[in-house]
Design goal:
Blueprint (H helix, E strand, L loop, with lengths): L5 H13 L10 E5 L4 E4 L11 E9 L9 E9 L3 E9 L3 E10 L2 E9 L11 E7 L3 E6 L2 E7 L3 E2 L8 E2 L14 E10 L5 H7 L12 E5 L8 E2 L9 E4 L2 E3 L14 E4 L2 E4 L5 E5 L2 E2 L7 E2 L5 E8 L5 E3 L3 E3 L12 E4 L6 E6 L6 E7 L4 E7 L3 E5 L6 E9 L2 E9 L1
Antiparallel strand pairs: 1-13, 1-17, 2-12, 2-16, 3-8, 3-13, 4-5, 4-12, 5-6, 6-7, 6-11, 8-9, 9-10, 13-14, 15-16, 18-19, 19-22, 20-21, 20-23, 23-24, 23-25, 26-27, 27-30, 28-29, 28-31, 31-32
Amino acid sequence: MKKFTLSYILFLTFLASIKSQPCIPNTNSLDFNGTSSAVRINSTMGLEMINQLTIEAWINPGSFAASSTGNSIFCKHHWGSSTFGYVLRCGGTGVLSFNLAGAVSGSPVGWKEVTSPDGSLVLNTWQHVAGTFDGSNLKCYVNGNLVGTFAFTGTIYPSTGFKARIGALCDTTWSMTRYFDGLIDEVRVWNRALTASEIQAGMNDHIDPASQTGLVGYYRFNEGSGNVVSDLGVNNYYGTILGAQWSTQVPFNNNSLPTPVITYVAPNLHSSYSTGNQWYFGTTLIPGATQQDYLPTQYGNYKVVVTDSTGCTAISLPFNYNTTNIPENNGGMITLSPNPAHHSLSVKCQNNTTPLLWHLFDITGQGLTGGIIGETESVIDLSAFKPGLYIIRLGAGEGEMIRKIMIY
């Protein structure tokens, strides 16, 4: 059974922690048929917003109902003896509607609605929509831009007991169920009013629920199969799919970095990424080793972790740096003799006009000695070293070589 060291476990924990959730690929959305499909949220209590609210989603409508009340995006409103709850919806001539049951001093005062101008939404195109209420104003946004404001000071009269639905009216006692026709993705519900800058900052990526304030419902629709959708908000109110179908059409694609590749370009290990590198020896971070090339100092496994400008990361496969993958020569620019050597090693350089740098390592990669020798031919004294296999690294001008030598 393989044993994992504490450092290896910490390394894996580190890698998990740096894979920020905005970098998770967006793989799926849900396709609603406009006549019978919806997602039913399994609970209600954490979605009973009263003082503030934001609903946001990506939509790609296939058709519009006759009016802006007809295509429910996220619904938790109903009526009967009074008005209750809230809803984000669209329809008519491309109008976005954000509607809530207003209350003053705890008593209902009827529907309060903000709508966008005609033509704010179009068919068969992904658009981000949002509605917010901060206790004084209702606002609606399309693609992060404010398209409507309605002044109302008060609260939301809650729709207690009614389970929210995505893509349909939550109150099933009515014959008109106001189904949505088209694709919906990345549904978020907040117990606070997001600002325009917050909406714009988060709309084109998955967001990290652990770092958010007030995110009470978050449905990514990335499952791609089955009839349950996960809730990444604080309440974990999963949803049950009722007739909607999975789709691979999505409004945005998060960064998913290709795996970096390490190659050996003598005398360095070379990352396939020019920037964002951090080198590791085994599971240990190498301080300051952040360049594309790294000069290894000992034999063993090396990895490189790459982080791009958005914080997305990828880790290479291990590269085993050892005597079997070190080139034996560099085309004849530098030659060594004899090998095996006894007390000394002769070094010859062809067409070289600069001093030759050399370093001697034992077979584990531990540096032993080094220096500078002449430009054409010199001798390295090996008399101080015990018999065995060693590694010598030499560089002269554009010539570079790492070779195994035997001392007897």
